[in-house]
Amino acid sequence: MTTTLHLPEADADLTPLEEARAQLRDAIDFLGLSEGKYEMLAHARREMTVAVPLRRDNGDLELFIGHRVQHNFTRGPAKGGVRYDPNVDLDEVRALAMWMTWKCALLDVPYGGAKGGVRIDPRNYSQTELERVTRRYTSELIPILGPEKDIPAPDMGTDEQTMAWMMDTYSVAVGHTVPSVVTGKPISLGGSLGRRESTSRGVVHVALAALESRGLRPAHSTAAVQGFGKVGRGAARFLDEADVAVLAVSDMYGAVHNPAGLDIPALEAHVDVTGSVVDFSGAEPLDRDALLELDVDLLVPAAHEGVLTSDNANRVRAKVIVEGANGPTSSAADRIFAENDILVVPDILANAGGVIVSYFEWVQGNQSYWWTADEVEERLRTRMLGSWKDVTAYAREHDLSLRSAATIMAVERVALAHRQRGLYP
């Protein structure tokens, strides 16, 4: 049984930024790098906070706060999603940007990490209001955006349409169309086939490999998926298609459970009509948080950060946890999972499918040549499973958890790039 390197002695859970910096500290100590290197990598290269005023459809004026954090540029332009969520704050964005740096380095994608967001609940605003928010937010960030500077993508609360508005706003400002300034665009505007479901497909590629590593065959395995949005919905569908019985899913409104396995196509149809998994006729209602503690082989937390903590980790019965969301597991929970021999596949590996196909989209846009869906899927599968093999081999060689191994490998690649480029001036 392997453990992580430097987890907290106490059971106190850390904030996402504290978690990210603690993981970095472990990697720096393991690699024998200097305190100065830690300080460089623990802080973002650039941060911008902007005011985003909105004139509502009824004429009222509201003000929102937006952020964009560019953590690192050493291996290429910054890359990361934009989320619209009422809980967005600068420290959260800093943590997510740092994790994006490690994700890109681990998958050997030539980007640094970035993240952005606006503190808004998009459910409470019309489509025209969200367009105005997006365009104003983008216009404020134009000095630091660009296909060779920083390339946003969709995240929580944003989608293809959001990216289309961002691309158009940037393109109008510079005077010509620039498809590669964002990824996750509609296909009609230069988006890549396979981008919409890429994170979910990547999660499932790694999940099936992780189950196999524990001697579990798909047709005899069960799963629970927390979240039924961009990542969770696709993950449930692809697990179902791989013959894994998905027993429970949840969204922000509630959860549903069927011990014989959910009919995922029927559940998707229900969600398309009602907007929620709640009241699905093919299942019984379940407390949303209880989903995390079901007796299943595979748990996919694909909703939000910080859901697996010291408070509930000892009640988690899954044999494998594959992190579809960013930062869902606290360090204290990680320690408990290691003690309980629960395999955790970390976010920077598990949900990297989105950034991989975003890179493919960026490459295709720069070349003005688009690949088939089969080509995209095969290249995604090859990248995900290649990284899975590299991380598991490194973890075995050094007796590390998968999270520690993945973070160390990523930090080492970024630190090498820093050393080879040198320090200016």
Question: What attributes characterize this protein structure?
Answer:
single chain; 425 residues; alpha/beta; Rossmann fold; 7-stranded mixed beta sheet; 5-stranded mixed beta sheet; 13 helices; 12 strands; disordered N terminus
- The total count of strands amounts to 12
Shape: globular
Radius of gyration: 21 Å
Task: Give the CATH architecture of one domain.
Answer: 3-Layer(aba) Sandwich
Structural class: alpha/beta
Query: Secondary-structure element order, as H and E?
Result: HHEEEHEHEHHEHEEHEEEHEHHHH
**Count of DSSP H/I helices:** 13
Indicate the CATH class of one domain: Alpha Beta
The side-by-side strand order for the widest beta sheet comes to 9-8-7-6-10-11-12
User: Taking all residues together, what is the mean pLDDT?
Assistant: 95
Q: CATH topology of one domain, what is it called? A: Rossmann fold
The CATH H-level homologous superfamily of one domain = NAD(P)-binding Rossmann-like Domain
Low-confidence stretches: 1-11
**Share of helix among residues?**
40-55%
Topology (SSEs and partners):
Layout: H1 16-31, H2 35-42, E1 46-55, E2 61-70, E3 78-85, H3 90-106, E4 112-119, H4 127-141, E5 150-154, H5 160-174, H6 198-213, E6 222-226, H7 232-241, E7 245-251, E8 254-257, H8 264-274, E9 284-286, E10 298-301, E11 320-322, H9 331-339, E12 343-345, H10 347-350, H11 353-367, H12 373-398, H13 402-421
Parallel strand pairs: 3-4, 3-5, 6-7, 6-10, 10-11, 11-12
Antiparallel strand pairs: 1-2, 2-4, 7-8, 8-9
Helix pairs in contact: 1-2, 1-3, 1-13, 3-13, 4-5, 6-7, 6-11, 6-12, 11-12, 12-13
